[in-house]
Design a protein that fits this description.
34 strands, 7-stranded mixed β-sheet, about 475 residues
Amino acid sequence: MGILRNFINWRRFVQGSSALRIDDVQRATRDLRACRFEQLEDRKLMAGDVHLGAVYYEPASGDDSTPNLIQVTFQGGVPSTQLTQIVIDGDKNHDGKYSSGEIFFDTDDGGMGEFGHSPFKIVDSSGFTVTGWSVVDGGQKLVIDLTGFDPGEKLTFSIDVDEVQFVDAGDGGIDVNSLVEGNEFQRSILTGYFHAPHFEDANGSALFWDAYDKNFANANASAGSTLNLPKDSYIPPSNSDQTDLTAGAVLTLKQVPLPITIGGKVYHDRNKSNSINVGEQGIANVTLTLLQWNGSQWVSTGKTTETDTQGNYKFTAILPGTYRVSETQPSGWLSVSSQPGTVDGAVDGISLDPDNLANIILVGGQDGMNYNFGESLPNSISGYVHADPEGDCEIGPNDIMLKGVKIDLLDAQGKVIGTTFTDENGFYKFDNLGPGTYGIREYTPDGYFDSEEEVGSLGGVHSANDEFTQIVTLSGD
């Protein structure tokens, strides 16, 4: 491990970008060590950004007695992000055949490699497990499978790398060079695959470059962290600058949350049970608004939706967060209640009031279900006050309809919650009543004696002279 420590300062300019697409491989040319810059965007590491890097080293033993070394590590990512697979591909032209300047892995005796050979060997995998790898002698692709590879951990492995120096177009003959310095290894392709709970699996690719310090410096600055990898030039195992013998690749990719939804139903809660019962219908065209908690207050997400013909609604394309669903009260209806729904089968959220459900906490891949709002139609209680000369308790042609008689509306506890007076026809009415239990009290008008009372169509109890109680209304009664 001594050859991968005690680095000296960066000395050279960068060649190329640290985060190019695979398509760029086909356009790139095998330049000499010319100075070339590509400005990287200056930005902070956002939640979900992963910062992956790898460094290649050629020991230059001259006879392949010492294998090449590669180190890989990453930083950042959402909680529980792990690196699950690494691919290093020497097919720079991405055409499936050997081309001049491309590299391959010399892992066995008798193949196309020059001088000695070295198989794939793990040098260090502290803290995680290499579950498998795939590489063939003379092949250009090395695939390494991993489990438990967390941010900051490092994989170091060795293998012999040779170069296809020249391919004869006439007879297909291939010249091979065993000394693969950074300039020969550059434009090989590094690909990393990542997994994190509640996020889409992410992957990204970058090219190795002979001069890579500037790329790493830019990436480290934008990420706000530093990859623990060797610099372009370092001394061990020699006392001289090893700049020509290294290549590095670095990339930053963003993790995307798995799809998240919040949905439910606005329905006619006919029996005021605060739940959807058989036969209770949905209410169409009700507007719902989605808000998000920003740490100090609820703010609009800009998302609104309407219930369909069945009363169902759904918010989609939501990022992880804490949410509130607000109902716009539909015209002609009265609020009954709001019911928190479930996330992964467990109740999540609270009812602030009949029109607001809040504290719905969601992460990627979760669906908030059955966030419902119950509504009722307004109720009314009405009747007549009349002088009954026949004493039959029926309104007949000889009855006198009494105007201006005072009538009180009582709640379930007998408290007066409304007052009205009969009209010229002796008629009174309390309208727009929510579901509940009510009472009615009449004040006998001057000049008349108290007579009989008659319970109306909603039932109730004649509890005292001039008073009915326990009149129960549900919805539209």
